[in-house]
Structure formats: structure tokens, C-alpha cells
Amino acid sequence: MLRKDFISRSQYKQRLATFQSAMKLPMVIGQCFGLNPVIGIFDVDATKIKFKLCSARCLYTIFSILGQASMLFFSILKYLKDTDTSLSSNTTLAFYSSNFVTTVLFLRMATKWPRLCLQISMTEATSPNIDISLVKKCNMTCILVLALALVEHFLSDLSGLAAVIDCEPEKNVYEAFVKHSFPWVYAFVPYNHFIGFLTQVFNIQSTFTWSFADLFIICISFYLTSRLEQVNDKIVKARGKNMPQHFWRTVREDYNRAASLVRRVDEVIGAIIFISFANNLFFICLQLYNTLKPLHGYEQATYFMYSFIFLVMRSLAVSLIAAKVYAASRKPATSLYDVSYNAYSVEIQRFLNQVHGDTVALSGLQFFNIKKGLVLSIAGTIVTYELVLLQFTGVTPTSSPPVADLLS
User: Fold this and answer.
1) DSSP label at 363?
2) 21: which of 30, 48, 174, 279 is 20 to 30 A away, CA to CA?
3) Which helix (H) or strand (E) holds 2?
4) 182: Cβ–Cβ under 8 A, 6 or more apart, which residues?
5) pLDDT tens per residue across span 106-139
């Protein structure tokens, strides 16, 4: 008679959650916006993943970088031309510079991605990752985050369109909308439909790159946490049992492989983590500042409120989910302390020393480790900078808008 927990070979393979399968949808979506241009993302075999400079994907990425560089160039020209240095005038420069840097960092990461996938595949061959929900979590996160980003982009365009219809009703709506959306471009070049189309394309790429960086970090964190939790499950199942020394040696080696993966991934994506957290911090401060100012019309109010809430929730998600990597790396200590005196061995002591001695966490170029306490530090920084902004700009939630703003 078969045991109830028996599963067939095909069922076992279906339960395997490889790095390739977990990152397939995020990679496909990223490449739609010119990010991480590697080939072979649909192959199960990690040796098929290659970075080729002359591939169509890489050429598309280079085209995207040149387009974002041109948008950044015009925003710098506008910044140098304008005499005012208000926070609002710096927003465009910050937005396009951060997205330009992010796209370049993803291209740089693509050169390291094949080797990283090969190393992860070798680890999975030694210690397969069995997590039925991993692929589903990554796919659902992709759909949810990008759907919310699409709503934000729609509200932004709706706010700009409403301003154009109110202020310039006699002009061609599309042309007026494009000029209103990208004044720093058309202050230096004449409008035509081709340039208008390109500016829209590069703006959409920048908008989704902004959200995709967080999405990418979240999916990577899901996978790394799953690797560590698999080790923790083995330890929990052995709780209260007199396990032999070779069992603890095997578990410690599994933990060491998972910790090495975290460090290797951190080396590859650390720069993206850094720019993502810096980006989120700046734009949360900006959107909070905008929501405290008197707003013109319900379209603008809806956009700023939604954008602020979306930014906060997205930043919280990436911080808390990435922090789970560190939390999972500390879990073994609790169960190891419960091992009885008779079962205690040198391997358990080495395991405890490794858990307490190493910091296994994702970081932003080693400037900060992502832990739960980081959320409180970021929140305190936001409040501090917001108070400084309000003090220097003289904006209060009840103050009247300047006459110039009402006439614009």
C-alpha cells in the first residue's frame, strides 16, 4: 500500500521552483522596456542564457538608453536655462537621471547575469528548491505592481490632459498635451509628430523602469528567502529529535550554499538596490510635498494622492520583502538552541557561529543592509526632510496658491 505522502517523479518536478522559472515573467516584462537584454530566458538550461552585444535585445536597450539620455540632456538644458531652483523644477531632472542610470545598471547587470544564473543552477542541482508557491508569487507580484503603475501613468496623463483642455482649448489637443507634458524638450526643438511619439515612448519606458526596479528586487528576494526557508524547514522538522552529526553537517552546508547565493546576488544587483531606495526616498518626499500644496482640480488631486500612496506601498513592499532574506538567515539559531545536550555537537556550534557571525542580507552597495529596522529609519528621514521643505518653501496645507500658479 502506498504511503499518503508519496509523490511521483513528475509531481516532484512540478514542485521544483528554479530561478529560471521564478524570474521568467519579470525578465520578459523587463525586456519589453529595454532592461536586462540577455537571450535564452525561456530555456530551462542555464547554459543557454547569453549576453550578446549585437543581439536585437541589446540594440533595443542601447536605443532606449540613447532616448533617455536625450530626455535627460534636454532637462539639464532647461535646468541651466531657468533661474528658479525650486523643488518642482528639479523633479524632471531627478526623474530622468535616475531612470537613465537604472537602465544603464540593468545593462551592466546583463553582462553578469549568465554567470549568476549558471552558479544558481549548479546550487539547485546540488540542493533543489521545492516551493510550489514561488513562481505564482513572482507572477502575481509582476501583474499587480505593473497594473498599479499603469493606473498611475493613466492618472498622470489625465491630469495633464485636463490642464491642457482648461488652459488651451483652441489648440490641437494632442499637440498641446505633448508640449505640456514635455516643455523642456520643446523649449529647444520644434514640435513634430515623430518627436512627439518618441518622447511619449521614452516617457513610458522611464515610468515603468521606475516601478520595475522595485519589482525585480521583490522577485529576487522571494527566491532567496525561499532558499533559506527550505533550510529552516529541515531544522524545524528535526526539532526535539536526536539527529546524528552528519545531518547537521549537511544542513549547515545547505545553509552555507544559500548564504553564498545571497552574497553573490547582492554583488550583482547591489547598485540597482541602491538607486531604487534613493529614488523612492526622493519621490516620496516630493509627492508628499505636492499633496500638502493647494491642488488645481480633482484630476491633479487624485493623481498626487494615488501616486503618493502607491509609492509608499511599493517602497514598504520592497523593503519588507527584501528584509525577509535577513530574517530567514537568523531563524536557524532559535531551533539550534533547543537541541538537547546529548545531541549537541561541534557541527551545531559551527552552525550557530556562522548564523551569528555572518550578515546574510541584500544591501545597497554595502552602504546599508535591508532589515526591518531600515523602514523606520527611512520613515524618520522622510518626516525630517518634509519639515525642512515646508519650512523653506513656506507651503502649508491651508495656504492659498500663488496667483502665477492659478493663471498658468
Assistant:
1) B
2) 279
3) none
4) 71, 199, 203
5) 999 999 999 999 999 998 888 887 778 889 999 9
Determine the residue type at 108: R
Q: Which of 21, 228, 231 is nearest to 136 (CA)?
A: 21
Distance CA 31, CA 25 (A): 10
Helix ranges (H only) for 293-372 are 298-330, 332-336, 346-357
How many whole angstroms separate alpha carbon 229 and alpha carbon 245? 21
Model confidence, pTM: 0.87
In one letter, which amino acid is 209? T
Would you state the cell numbers that stand for residue 365, as one nine-digit string? Answer: 552597495
Confidence bin at 402 (pLDDT 50/70/90): very low
Q: What pLDDT does residue 170 have? A: 63
How far apart (Å, rounded) are the C-alpha atoms in residues 130 and 261?
16
Selected residue with higher pLDDT from 223 and 288: 223
Phi/psi at 83 (5° precision): -90, -30
Please tell me what DSSP assigns to residue 38.
-
Q: Does 35 score more than 60 pLDDT?
A: yes
Q: Count the neighbouring beta carbons within 10 Å of the beta carbon of residue 124.
A: 19
Place of cell 522577485: 219
Q: How far is CA 266 from CA 203, 221, 312, 361, 367, in A?
A: 29, 10, 24, 8, 12
Q: What distance in Å separates the CA atoms of residue 305 and residue 375, rounded to the nearest whole number?
A: 21
**Would you say 142 and 30 are in contact if contact means Cβ atoms under 8 Å apart?**
no
Residue 356: helix, strand or coil by DSSP?
A: helix
* pLDDT reported for residue 59: 94
Q: Which amino acid is at 405?
A: D
pLDDT in tens, 40-60: 888 888 888 999 988 899 999
CB atoms within 10 A of CB 219: 22
Which residues in 186-287 belong to E strands, given as ranges? none
